[in-house]
Design goal:
binds 4'-deoxy-4'-aminopyridoxal-5'-phosphate, Aspartate Aminotransferase, domain 1, 7-stranded mixed sheet, Aspartate Aminotransferase, domain 2, 3-stranded antiparallel sheet, alpha/beta, single chain, binds glutamic acid, 398 residues, 41% helix
Length: 398
């Protein structure tokens, strides 16, 4: 069957593929430790589940306006005021089927063939492919471990060309957990102020998961003059353990929001009505569970970093937020065991899956082949069991 050319330009999402593989192995009876998946392991809080049930019983089960119900847009605006100190109206908000869908709609609304999109690496797996799907060209800007995986203003300046349309910034980052503080953001903002045609996608999906008492800040908060060209992507998946509900949102310039809503009107229509009502409760209701989840991640972060420090040859910059670590395992490249030859991150991930029954995502999927991504959204017990198995397996490599 002849498929559209765009299909050959994209790959399936590596993170979702590893998760599927780990779950299949689990179903077949193998006791896999799944460091692969990027989702909190807690259940959606009860008050949110109850709000969903209530909405079903109240018959809130029909089409809603394409871009989301006003009550949810209101809750988004209130959240933007409370957490960002920024004022937006309903016309500045589009509610989509997850943050991923919000990004997809944004790219479809903004990008044309020939447009370049600057993506600092390591990057979340979906950015380059979504840019490709919009017909534009991803420009990957490599950030090194030596630079703490953060983009510097001079790197950004050097990458901007007359074709640059969009710059994607994800803080705290998936996969490195790195966060851009006020000084970092100010440096990048100064560059962007000099390039009026460059728009900014600020993917803030992990903004509630910050460690070490860090305060939330993004580029639009640091430099108000960039606000009209900054598009904020966020959602309830990570902050409220609602990955399956599929609600995310896009906030920004009303004209672009209208265009992105038009894209959505011709693809999914509205996001699920029930999930929207549940998300109203998530954003407006008691926020205590967000802090509780943050404390839990802090403990696990320490455990994972301690265990990584015990692995010979492995280095790992400390994450500042989210629930990922992105350690460098390249010291193991060139080694062999029982038919496995480790030449790259994908070989190592396959080896760990088969020999240690541990699922991790190869760094190549995030644009950095020396590393592996491990999510620590797992119980302390599972983390320890997983690292015991990794330690044993690595010792077999010679
Ligand atoms: N951005 C980043 C960086 C992510 O890790 C994710 C998680 N999949 C998303 C966006 C989208 O999440 P969701 O579609 O579940 O809201
Ligand atoms: N963001 C998560 C991850 O990176 C979920 C999977 C996905 O949407 O790619 O693992």
């Amino acid at each position: 069957m002849r498929l559209a050319q765009r299909i050959s330009r994209i790959k399936p999402s590596a993170t979702l593929a590893i998760n599927t593989k780990a779950k299949e192995l689990k179903r077949s009876g193998v006791n896999v430790v799944n460091f692969g998946v990027g989702e909190p392991d807690c259940d959606t809080p009860e008050s949110i589940r109850e709000a969903a049930v209530k909405s079903i019983c109240a018959g809130q089960t029909r089409y809603t306006p394409v871009g989301g119900i006003d009550e949810l847009k209101d809750a988004v605006c209130r959240t933007m005021k409370a957490d960002y100190g920024l004022s937006y109206g309903l016309e500045n908000v589009l509610v989509s089927c997850g943050g991923k869908h919000a990004l997809y709609n944004l790219f479809q609304a903004l990008l044309d063939p020939g447009d370049e999109v600057i993506i600092p690496s390591p990057f979340w797996v979906s950015y380059p492919d979504m840019v490709e799907l919009a017909g534009a060209t991803p420009v990957i800007l490599r950030c090194t471990e030596e630079n703490d995986f953060r983009l510097t203003p001079s790197d950004l300046e050097a990458a901007i060309t007359p074709k640059t349309r969009l710059f994607i910034l994800n803080s705290p980052s998936n996969p490195t957990g790195k966060y851009y503080g006020e000084k970092d953001l100010k440096g990048l903002a100064d560059v962007l102020l000099r390039h009026e045609n460059v728009l900014i996608a600020s993917d803030d999906i992990y903004y509630r998961i910050l460690s070490g008492g860090r305060k939330w800040i993004n580029i639009g908060m640091v430099e108000n003059r960039l606000l009209d060209r900054t598009f904020i992507v966020n959602g309830v998946s990570k902050s409220y353990c609602m990955t399956g509900w599929r609600i995310g949102y896009l906030v920004g310039n009303a004209e672009v929001i209208k265009a992105a809503t038009k894209v959505q009107s011709q693809s999914t229509s509205n996001p699920t009505s029930i999930s929207q009502w549940a998300s109203v409760e998530a954003l407006n209701g008691d926020q205590a569970h967000v802090a509780k989840m943050g404390q839990l991640f802090e403990v696990r972060r320490r455990l994972v970093l301690d265990r990584l420090a015990r692995l010979p040859g492995v280095t790992c910059p400390e994450p500042d937020g989210a629930f990922y670590v992105f350690p460098n395992f390249s010291a193991y490249f060139g080694r062999k065991y029982n038919g496995h030859e480790i030449k790259c991150s994908a070989d190592l991930a396959d080896f760990l899956m088969e020999v240690a029954h541990v699922a991790v995502v190869p760094g190549v999927a995030f644009g950095e082949d020396k590393c592996l991504r491990l999510s620590y959204a797992l119980s302390g017990e599972e983390i320890s069991r997983g690292f015991d198995a990794i330690e044993l397996a690595l010792k077999k490599l010679s």
